[in-house]
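Worked example (supplementary).
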Amino acid sequence: GDSVTQMEGPVTLSEEAFLTINCTYTATGYPSLFWYVQYPGEGLQLLLKATKADDKGSNKGFEATYRKETTSFHLEKGSVQVSDSAVYFCALSPSGTGGFKTIFGAGTRLFVKA
Amino acid sequence: NAGVTQTPKFRILKIGQSMTLQCTQDMNHNYMYWYRQDPGMGLKLIYYSVGAGITDKGEVPNGYNVSRSTTEDFPLRLELAAPSQTSVYFCASTREGGSSGANVLTFGAGSRLTVL
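After joint prediction of all chains, the assembly is encoded as:
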């Protein structure tokens, strides 16, 4: 079945460091791919998305590119801030399905130190 | 625009008690969902609804019930609470499902439930 695997956390970085959170997926066809972010005490919110191969999603300085050949959707940011401390979830929605088919990774907690 | 609103934010139950988690959305979304989030486990779908009067089971429905009498409301009922139901519960909605492309979920802030 479809699945999402993301790197285990926590990830601890100093402010202005480069961030990469790895995400790989298993799915048939061409799923939509997402990164959601969960700030402390809040629900998940969409960070960025990509709907087809080679698409790059971007938001708030974060980027991720839909790589069909490596089945990956790694999240990157060039310079993290303390305010980026949160839990990041990679997710996929199989092609031609509703949101009820969304599959989430286990989440990666990021701590950014001043 | 409130989005998805959940109540209560926190609740402690004794084993065997029952309760209802409330969820309402004001975006006229037709799809609504209940997830539970356990530490290190991501999110698991409990139940979902594709419109008023229509509900279906997700991955982990045992011990829960739902109803959808209106587009706006999607309450989750816990009968005979058990310690295994200790979790954070999230309600979410999407505008539409099917082959519309990216199905972006809008989440509520969550309800933390502890069963002792």
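Two points are worth noting when inspecting this output. The two ends of chain B are 36 Å apart (CA to CA). Chain B touches chain A through 29 residues (CB under 8 Å).
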